[in-house]
TrEMBL record:
This is GAF domain-containing protein. Residues 176-237 form the ANTAR domain. GO terms for molecular function: RNA binding. Keywords: Transcription, Transcription regulation. PROSITE patterns: ANTAR. SMART domains: ANTAR (SM01012). It comes from Micromonospora polyrhachis.
């Protein structure tokens, strides 16, 4: 078998492995409404699906909220926590918005404190890719190798595709979580007063929109007019209940 044939076979195998990983990630996260659970699923799936990767971690920065960390193994929790007090590949990937690779941490000089801790935990290679989720949430996904020089060039492409796909999936999870929270608020509002429920029904009929959107219309009107939500609902219901003049 020629060298070119072997290289072609390896590339084909890498493409199939990456496709299987993205398919498994989609299946695992497509119905999730919990962001933290989705992060946990992401790191477990990535660890198990990518050859040469021993552990996986995700670091997420959310505007106005504490940072989140998910790790495929409790071993990495301390390593990720350390990145908030000192520089490291995950935070470097977030800050520079580019792929960060260290194939052999024994020769790494960029993050002395982080590297010493990583080597002590048995980590000898790391590949971190930035993840863009939405306007308020960014992060990075890091692939860790127990052996040096396992994160080869083909793994860099996998990491880039993984980060892009994960960003899209996590953005969808956040959207579903917000929608679920809004529906929960809607349910509570309906229980609080039949009048508000009637007003929501009027808006749904007039605009042909779902209940959460109708509730948001009421809230927007309440804020714009500086009057309570119930008063806005009362005026709306009264306006459509008046008998028509001759």
């Amino acid at each position: 078998m020629s060298l070119q044939t072997r290289e072609t076979d390896v590339e084909t195998l890498n493409v199939l492995e990456t496709a299987a990983l993205l398919r498994e990630l989609t299946a695992g996260l497509i119905n999730s409404n919990d962001f933290d659970d989705a992060l946990a699923q992401l790191v477990r799936t990535s660890r198990d699906a990518i050859p040469g990767v021993t552990w996986c971690g995700v670091t997420v920065l959310r505007a106005g909220e504490p940072a989140s960390v998910a790790a495929s193994d409790p071993l990495l929790t301390d390593l990720d926590d350390l990145q908030y007090g000192a520089d490291g590949p995950a935070m470097t990937a977030i800050r520079r918005r580019e792929l960060i690779l260290s194939g052999d941490l024994r020769t790494e000089t960029r993050w002395p404190l982080w590297t010493r801790r990583a080597l002590a935990l048995g980590v000898h290679g790391v590949l971190s890719a930035p993840v863009d989720i939405d306007d308020h949430v960014i992060g990075s996904i890091s692939l860790y190798a127990q052996e040096p020089n396992r994160l080869i060039e083909s793994r860099q492409l996998t990491a880039m595709l993984l980060a892009e796909h994960a960003g899209l999936l996590l953005a969808a999870v956040r959207d579903r979580a917000r929608q679920a929270a809004l529906v929960g608020e809607l349910d509570g509002t309906l229980l609080d007063g039949e009048l508000i429920g009637q007003a929501i029904g009027v808006i749904m009929t007039q605009r042909g929109c779902p209940a959460p959107e109708a509730l948001q219309v009421l809230r927007t009107a309440s804020a714009a007019l500086s009057i309570p939500l119930r008063d806005v609902a009362e005026r709306l219901v009264a306006s459509v209940s008046r008998p028509r003049g001759n």
